[in-house]
Amino acid sequence: MSDQALETVSEISALRKLVASRRQQGATIGFVPTMGALHAGHTSLIEAADADCDFVVVSIYVNPTQFGPDEDFERYPRVLEQDLAKCAAAGANLVWTPDTSIMYPDGYSTDVTVKALSRILEGATRTNHFQGVTTIVTKLLLSCLPDIAYFGAKDFQQQAIIRRMCLDLNIPVEINTCPIIRDTDGLALSSRNAYLSAEEREAGLSLSRALRLAEEKVAAGETDIAQIKAAMQQLLNATPLLKLDYATIADPTTLEDISTVQSEMVALIAARVGTTRLIDNCQLAPAATEKT
Amino acid sequence: MSDQALETVSEISALRKLVASRRQQGATIGFVPTMGALHAGHTSLIEAADADCDFVVVSIYVNPTQFGPDEDFERYPRVLEQDLAKCAAAGANLVWTPDTSIMYPDGYSTDVTVKALSRILEGATRTNHFQGVTTIVTKLLLSCLPDIAYFGAKDFQQQAIIRRMCLDLNIPVEINTCPIIRDTDGLALSSRNAYLSAEEREAGLSLSRALRLAEEKVAAGETDIAQIKAAMQQLLNATPLLKLDYATIADPTTLEDISTVQSEMVALIAARVGTTRLIDNCQLAPAATEKT
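YS: structure for the whole thing
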C-alpha cells in the first residue's frame, strides 16, 4: 500500500527512470496494462497489484494493431481524466500513457506471434488480433520491466497466450491472472458493455447464465462434455438478438477442446449481440476435485 | 578486465542468479551470443566486452531454428573444450551453454519476426533464417539481461535486424557492432571457412577483393553506384568455382539498395563456393566524407 500522489509519464525513458529508482530502493514493481475506459475489472487488478507490490504502474494505451479493420478502434471509449481518478483511488503510483509515435515509431517492423494458441477461438474470427496483443504486451512489459504483471481472467485466451509468450521468450516477469468481475446481473464487466442497448444487455446475460448451467452440471457430476456443451449452446441459441460464435470446454493451458472430463477445464463463450462482441468464461472442476 | 576463473552454467535460473548478483555489486554486464566454433572474430567480441564491461557472459548454442532443412545444422562444428579455453583467454567470466530442452521446451510456440529486413538479401534465399535468429536472440538477451550485447559486422544484415528488433520491442540493451576480423589473405573469418578446400578458399578471396575494389572506386571519387556494383559483380563472376548470389550497395540501416551515393553506404556480397555459402561486406564513405 502506498499513499503517494499519482504521477503520469508518456516517454519510455521517463517510465524506466522512475521504475529503476524505485527498484533500487528495494521496491517490487507491479504492472497493469490497460486500454483505458477503466471499470471495476481493471481497478480490481490495480488493487491486487497494490496489495502485492510496493510500486504500481498502470499503462493506458489503445493499441491500434490489435483491432481489425472492421472493429471499434475509432469509437473505443477514451476517458483519460476519469481513468486517472480511478487509478489513484485503486492504489496506482504511476500512470504511463504512451502514444503511437512512441510505441510504433517510423520504420517499426517487428511482430511477436504465439502461433497455435492465436489461431483458435477468438483468433479464428479476429485475424491478427492476438499478434497485435502479444507484440504490444511484449513492448509494454519490456518498457516497464515489472516483477509482476496483472491480467483479467475475462480475456482468458489472452492471458493464456501471454503466459505462453513470457515463458517462450524468457520475459522476466510473473503473470498474475485475477478473477472476472461481474455486474450484479451477472454480466462480465467490459469496456464494450457501454455499446449495449437495454435489450442487448438482457441478451448478453445469456453468456453468464450458460456458464452457470455448465458449472451446475459439472458440480452435479455430469461427465459427458458433449452434453454440457450442447446445453450451453441450446441456451445461447434460444436467446433473441444473440448470435453465438462458440461455446466450448477446453484445457486451460493449451485451449484445445476436450471431450472427457479432466481436473482443470475452462468453459469459453463468444457471441455477438447487435454489433457488439461479448466473451465470457469460467473454470470448471469436476465434482470430486476441489475447485482452484 | 577481470582475472577470475571462468564459470559455466546451462540453466537460465543459474545464469540469471549470477548476473543479478554481479549487477547488484554494481557491475556492468557484457554479453556475446555465439554458436561456438569460436575464431578470432568471436574472441574480438569477447575482448571488446571485457574492455567495456565488468562481467562478460558468452553463450554457446547452435540454434536449430535458424538453419534451413538443407543447411549445415548437423555438421556445424561443435568444439566446446576449445571454445571454453578461448573464452577464458579472451576475458569471459561466464559461459552459458543451454541446450534445446531449455531453449525450446515442450509446447514452445512463439516467434519474433522483423518483417521487411528479413525478406531481402540473405533472407531471400534463406527462408525463416532471420526469424530463427531474432527469436533466439530475443530469448538469449532476455535470459541474460546484459547492459551491452556484442555482434560482429561480418553478419551485417543480422546486426541491422537485431538493432531494429531491440528498438521495436524495447529490449533494454545497447547493441555494439564490432569490426570484421580477416585472415592475412583477406578472407573474413567464419566458422564455415573450415568447410573450404584450398581451391575453394582461393575462390572465396574474391569476396574481399571485390569489396576492396568498391572501396577504391569510392575513394577515387566514383559516384556511379551502378558502375561500382557492376565492377564487383564482374570480378566475382569471373572467379572459377564461385557462384554469385548478390553483390550490392545498400543503406546500412534499411538495407535497401541505393542508386546514388550517400554519406553512409554498405557493400554486401554473398556467394556460394562449392557447397559453402560465404558472405562479406564493408562500409563505404564517399571521398568527400570522413569514413566512420
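YS: worth flagging: The beta strands of chain B are 7-9, 29-34, 55-60, 94-96, 110-114, 148-152, 174-178, 242-250, 265-273, 276-284.
IM: good catch. Also Chain B has two domains: 7-178, 191-282.
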